[in-house]
Amino acid sequence: MQGILLVDKPAGWTSFDVVNYVRRRVAAAEGLRPKQVKVGHAGTLDPFATGLLILLIGKEFTRRAAEFSKLDKTYEVTMRLGTTSTTGDPEGQITPVNDKIPTKTEIKNTLKKFTGAITQTPPAFSAIKVNGQRAYKLARAGKEVVIEPRKVTINRLKLLDYNYPELKFTADVSSGTYIRALVEDIGQALGTGAYTINLRRTVIGDYKVESAVGADKLQADAIKSTMKS
């Protein structure tokens, strides 16, 4: 079995959990040991996030990972105003900031300011390597994590719903954009603080989550019949 498999990752699973699960299913179907099967993904999703994960199965496809990871992406984002999180998501320590309630006009104007080429600093709790180690491992160990700012492009931010303290929007972004960092920056600009409470990736390049397989259907037959070449 070789090809591209689109998976709709459930909340609570790491991207590696999905890779491992599919590797075992493919290995069992082909009468191989899991270590003999090459499976990788083309762009991590946080454990709390859901949505589109591109899996690459077989040596011919896993070596193309960089090609897919550089594609633009679309996310549906829900953020909570008035509080911050040490990790930028629900898994961190939550701290109240204030009870300021921005108007819808303020929200729209602030989203416009973050559209286009911007500079952002990836979160300490991320998979970026710092001196050869994953940043999140250093952060969890209580060590100082210094990550250099980087330029990314926000192609579009569209407000979907606003009912304080929750704000929902769609983000079309370039590869390398960290949504948790974007949300924190928006919260800071609004003077309220903010963190991401829901994150769903719906598009990667031309691939859409509507074509993806749910985790509950990741059996060998479904994997084989839905893989793309």
Which structural traits does this protein have?
Pseudouridine synthase, 34% strand, 7 helices, elongated, 229 residues, 2 domains
Describe this structure in words.
The chain is an alpha+beta fold. The protein folds into two domains: 3-70 and 207-226, Pseudouridine synthase; 73-204, Pseudouridine synthase, CATH 3.30.2350. Helices cover 26% and strands 34% of the residues. The protein is built from seven helices and 14 strands. The protein has helices spanning 15-30, 59-62, 65-69, 104-113, 135-140, 179-190, 220-226, and strands at residues 3-9, 39-41, 50-57, 73-81, 83-85, 94-96, 116-120, 129-130, 133-134, 150-163, 166-173, 194-204, 207-208, 213-214. Strands 1, 2, 3, 4, 7, 10, 11, 12, 13 and 14 form a ten-stranded mixed β-sheet that branches. A two-stranded antiparallel sheet has the order 5-6. The longest helix is centred in the N-terminal third of the chain and has 16 residues, at 15-30. The protein is elongated and about 60 Å long. The chain starts with a strand and ends with a helix.
Strand runs, count: 14
Order of helices and strands: EHEEHHEEEHEEEHEEHEEEH
User: How far apart lie the N and C ends?
Assistant: 10 Å
Largest sheet: 10 strands, mixed
Low-confidence stretches: none
Number of spatially distinct domains: 2
What gross morphology would you assign? Answer: elongated
Q: Output the CATH class name of the largest domain.
A: Alpha Beta
**CATH architecture descriptor name of the largest domain:** 2-Layer Sandwich
- Rg computed from alpha carbons, rounded to a whole number of angstroms: 19 Å
